[in-house]
Amino acid sequence: MIPLSLLLAVDELNKWARGNGREFAYEIYDLKGKIIQRLDRAWSFRTSVIVTCRTCGGTGQFRSDECWDCHRGKTTLQFLLTEIHAGDRILQWHTPRDRARWVPAVEFEKLQIVPPGDWKPNQPGLDIERATGLALLMAAKTLAAEVLRVEVTA
Ligand SMILES: [Zn+2]
Questions:
Q1: How confident is the model at residue 12 (pLDDT cuts 50, 70, 90)?
Q2: Mean pLDDT, rounded, for 52-72
Q3: Shortest CA distance to 9 belongs to which of 105, 151, 100, 141?
Q4: Centre of ligand 1 from the C-alpha of residue 39, in Å
């Protein structure tokens, strides 16, 4: 059982990672991924959004083999959507498909597809005072290491 305090801390950190805590994004996403793999009261879905291709800037002009999944300047991003019971709230965490490596491709294909709704990737994040954000991150990592008994990236 993942403590509610840890879920709420990571939910907050997840927003900080898109705000002024961007330099800690890797650590935060690592922590988030490890927690998702150990959740007991959660549901997984898949969702996708169509965005302007970054490689060609939406022109659709083939530039390199990096643009392979682009169609006329648009590209489809796939996400694992995890809905988590956290007290009286339901948290929604999105993980890009290529970062959710713990879900085998076959399992991912079987997940129920849900529309993204109002959600978009790279939504504005949360700015937290650096010392406060760091303290929250350290506390979450310590608690996670204890609860999950895994090493969390330092
Ligand atoms: Zn493109």
A1: very high
A2: 77
A3: 141
A4: 36
Amino acid present at 104: P
Q: Calculate how far, in angstroms, residue 58's C-alpha sits from the geometric centre of ligand 1.
A: 6
Q: List for the chain the helix, strand, coil content (%; round to 5).
A: 40, 25, 40
**Residue 17, Cβ density class (10 Å: 0-12 exposed, 13-18 middle, ≥19 buried):** buried
Q: What is the pTM of this model?
A: 0.85
**Host domain of residue 17:** 4-148
Number of domains the chain contains: 1
* 153 is a domain residue: no
Residue 11 placed within a domain: yes
